[in-house]
Amino acid sequence: VQLQASGGGLVREGESLRLSCTISGSISGIGAVAWFRQSPGKSREWVATIAGAGTTYYSDSVKGRFTISENNTKSTVFLQMNKLKSEDTAVYHCAVDLGRARYGPWGQGTLVTVSS
Asked: In the predicted model, what is the mean pLDDT of residues 46-63?
């Protein structure tokens, strides 16, 4: 399985972006997919997860502003980011939830820059 994040860019505070995570390979065995982000000098932070039944989970820092979803073939997972803040600036990655707090594979992320 390979995952590729895309859709990042430079926006102003209050604006929106939609990220995409394209999944290739054997999709049928994937139970849940998560978005993470990493800012310079900080550790990787979990952002959101969409589980196999479509159940979604969010970190407190993005709850109410971000929405995770997937297409009907589960080959693409989206992260709609609204009301962006400067602290949302980071490289965003998507990864498969492998269970037992393990995630991967880690593909190239996409940079989101929010200017104040």
From this structure: 95
